[in-house]
Amino acid sequence: MVQLDSYPFDKLRLPSGETAQWKAHNPTFHRTSDYGIVLTEQALYLRSPFWLSLARWRRIPLNEIRRIAFKDSYFTPSLRVETCTGTEVLRTPWDYRDDMNYDRENLRETEARVRNLVKGMAVVGA
Questions:
Q1: pTM of the model
Q2: Cα–Cα separations (whole angstroms), residue 116 to 5, 17, 45, 52, 67
Q3: Which of 39, 54, 91, 126 could join 76 in a cystine, given CB atoms 3.0 to 4.6 angstroms apart?
Q4: Of 120, 60, 53, 113, which Cα lies nearest the Cα of 90?
């Protein structure tokens, strides 16, 4: 089980029965806020830092994910999650090259982990 006791995860409250299996963020000291990614056995949680007053955790049930894709960009790499009700996008902030590369790896790993979980759910439910 992954602990969610540090920023930005400390504000996330998982529903009863869900436990964090994996998390990602970039804890660089010079950002005023940070994105967050949490993966449970039932859902993907995304937190965007761009508008701090509007920052919130978004819950995306794995069984509603139709497609997930990492989109690279010089300024704001992103993760696009298409669901049966719309599209959620997590953009990471522009930063130094090393920090942005770290963010890209977090997004790529999220994409791979979610694809594996969703694929596994399709096999089980078939």
A1: 0.88
A2: 26, 21, 16, 31, 12
A3: 91
A4: 60
